[in-house]
Amino acid sequence: MNDFAEINKQQWLIKPIGYVHSPYKQKFGLARQPGLVPVAQARIELLPTFNADCVRGLEEYDYIWVQFVFHGAINDGWLPLIRPPKLGGKEKKGVFATRSPHRPNHLGLSLLKLEEIIIADTVSIYVSGIDLLDQTPVIDIKPYLPFVEAKTHAAGSYAQARELLQVDWSAEALQQLKDFFLNDEFYQLVSQSLAQDPRPVHQHHKDKIFVMNLYDWDILFQVNGSIVVVTMIRKHIEV
Question: Is the domain covering 166-235 a CATH 3.30.2310.20 domain?
């Protein structure tokens, strides 16, 4: 018991190896799990200390594990019991039985598709299917090994695939795509993100106008039943 008490006093200093450059500037609209929005891409920029030698051979893998800090949730502290959104906020689960960012050490782990590695003044690792906020601190990267890590028949409790919403665009919003020179990739990013229904469980009001921030743009939308309508695109407004 005394040994455990001594161990419990130990602390470890973890420093980032790099930071994420992501189109998602705020939590609202961010995919709740990796892989749900395949078109969502980000760049992980390693700090200068971690040069090309550190990623030699990484390009031989299709997917990588990215360990990171939920930096947007640190000031919120942590809770032993969580209300997972998939349960409608009506049932509590232990924090270690969820993927909530409100964890004791605020550490996250995402399996992401490796798209490209570019070596310049710093190392940039391009990934897709992200669920990471802009400026997320990355603390480690490891290759995904499907022969030992793929468990397709494993039980997943309440965390199952959800039915996607249908995403429609108003004529005004489609015209704004052209006026602002926003390409098909942006259109797909908005559509795939909204199909996941980013609304909090307590804000399912039919007439409410929601705002999702991607890159430097605000996407305004409404939800009626299982249909999302993108009503307008505008330059981002800080609130």
Answer: yes
